[in-house]
Predict the 3D structure of the following.
Amino acid sequence: MQPSPLATRLRDASRAGVFYGQPSALGRAQRASLEVGITIINVDLRAVTDKAGLMAAMASAFSLPDWFGHNWDALADCLADLSWKEADGYAVFLHGAAKARERMPDDLDEAVSVLRGAVEHWRSEGLPFWVLFDAPLPDLISLFAGT
């Protein structure tokens, strides 16, 4: 059986990036990820109110190692390694983005920046690393824009 067009797109590391989509669209993206063996990582931001909570949510979702330093540089380092969570690709789904943006806009902007760095790193390795927020954020386009 041929993978869906979305699944084929998600396998393409050169098209990976940081996007947003409505919850129903993210459900489609999760199903498409599974079609092509991309590892799904769900990050729950619904109760996150500050940087410490954001770091804890990322550590939990990615099963980050004990040496993770709970700061931006350490997060960037861990997301560029992932040797403890090897996969043929990653699709990171962040839930609760709208409320998180209200509570901690600067920290969420920094998280987007770190995640973009991870996308670029894995793209250079030929591995898809997709990041999908469940609400529009500044400078993000919809995963389904132009499709």
